[in-house]
């Protein structure tokens, strides 16, 4: 056992990402401790996915820096990748394959040998409560089962840090609760977890600390309890609305802009 305890598993300094003229993440400086369950909250288009994409080495920062498990996300991409697991918003499971095959495939990608893969598959299936569903095609899974299988897959290589991008989006309340309790269990097992959400109840229920992010900037950073106390608010949602206002954010408008940008770029404009 490595006895050296890392104080901060994630450290960012003025981390910034521009997409053309859009500043998606604006000079974010924060540190996340080992074993923390950290929530990134923000309205649609706030920059949550872009922020964790940079930490997960999927997107390169425009400026600033970030370190994960003491590795630089630009200079030491491979080392960073070994220490993280990612479950993204858009599902990437193969529907035609059995649950167990999806897990095995991921193990192969991480060059785990057969024995290790078999052992880990058993482990993660138990953890997400899908042992008796392992030999069923994923297309026959419910939404909640799929999400749990995706999380299981993200855990196959035993990451120190797990990124969950909107882990309960579109799930019914029962399944959502089930996933929350499961995420809490993962934390107990020592995994550092960074999740994005726009469900305030979710963040309030499970997160140790949250960063409220709007227009790419961190506008508040504390435990849900402290934030509520500070603003004399009953719910975290009230705090959130204080910071981010009541104007409705139009996700569709954003994606429309992005699509138009892409088309323009392709046409050479
Ligand atoms: N690939 C991209 N190209 C251009 N703009 C993007 C791209 N990805 C995200 N954006 C823009 O960056 C901003 C932040 O997006 P995102 O990180 O997806 O927000 P969130 O996850 O909080 O909803 C938005 O304005 C979005 O339109
Ligand atoms: Mg997002």
What are the key terms here?
269 residues; alpha/beta; Rossmann fold; six-stranded mixed beta sheet; four-stranded antiparallel beta sheet; 10 helices; 41% helix; globular; binds adenosine-5'-diphosphate; binds magnesium ion
Oligomeric status:
single chain
Beginning-to-end CA distance, first to last residue: 56 Å
* Sequence of secondary-structure elements: EEEHEEHEHHHEHEHEEHHH
Tell me the strand percentage band.
Answer: 15-25%
Give the total of beta strands: 10
**Helicity level:** 40-55%
Count of discrete alpha- or pi-helical segments spanning 4 or more residues: 10
Strand arrangement, major sheet: 6-7-8-3-9-10
CATH superfamily: P-loop containing nucleotide triphosphate hydrolases
What's the average pLDDT? 88
Cofactors and ligands present? adenosine-5'-diphosphate, magnesium ion
**How many domains?**
1
Which term fits the overall shape?
A: globular
Could you list the spans in which at least 5 consecutive residues all have pLDDT below 50? Answer: none
Q: Kindly name the structural category.
A: alpha/beta
Tell me the major beta sheet: 6 strands, mixed
Assign the CATH class. Alpha Beta
User: Measured on Cα atoms, how large is the radius of gyration?
Assistant: 19 Å
Could you say what the CATH topology is called? Answer: Rossmann fold
The CATH architecture term is 3-Layer(aba) Sandwich
């Amino acid at each position: 056992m490595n006895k050296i305890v890392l104080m901060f598993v994630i450290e960012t300094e003025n981390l910034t990402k521009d997409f053309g003229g859009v500043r998606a993440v604006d000079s974010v400086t924060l540190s996340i401790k080992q074993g923390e369950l950290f929530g990134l909250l923000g309205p649609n288009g706030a920059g949550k996915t872009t922020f964790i994409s940079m930490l997960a080495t999927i997107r390169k920062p425009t400026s600033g820096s970030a370190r994960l498990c003491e590795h630089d996300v630009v200079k030491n991409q491979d080392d960073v990748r070994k220490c993280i697991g990612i479950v993204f918003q858009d599902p990437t499971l193969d529907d035609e394959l059995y649950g167990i095959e999806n897990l095995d495939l991921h193990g192969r990608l991480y060059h785990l040998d057969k024995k290790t893969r078999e052992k880990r598959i058993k482990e993660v299936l138990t953890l997400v409560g899908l042992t008796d569903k392992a030999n069923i095609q994923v297309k026959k899974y419910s939404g909640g089962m799929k999400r749990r299988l995706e999380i299981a897959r993200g855990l196959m290589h035993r990451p120190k840090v797990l990124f969950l991008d909107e882990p309960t989006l579109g799930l019914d309340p029962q399944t959502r609760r089930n996933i929350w309790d499961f995420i809490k269990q993962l934390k107990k097992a020592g995994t550092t977890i960074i999740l994005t959400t726009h469900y305030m109840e979710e963040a309030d229920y499970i997160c140790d600390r949250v960063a409220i992010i709007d227009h790419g900037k961190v506008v508040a950073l504390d435990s849900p309890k402290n934030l509520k106390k500070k603003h004399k608010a009953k719910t975290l949602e009230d705090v959130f609305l204080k910071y981010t206002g009541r104007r409705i954010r139009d996700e569709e408008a954003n994606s429309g802009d992005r699509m138009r940008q892409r088309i323009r770029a392709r046409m050479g404009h």
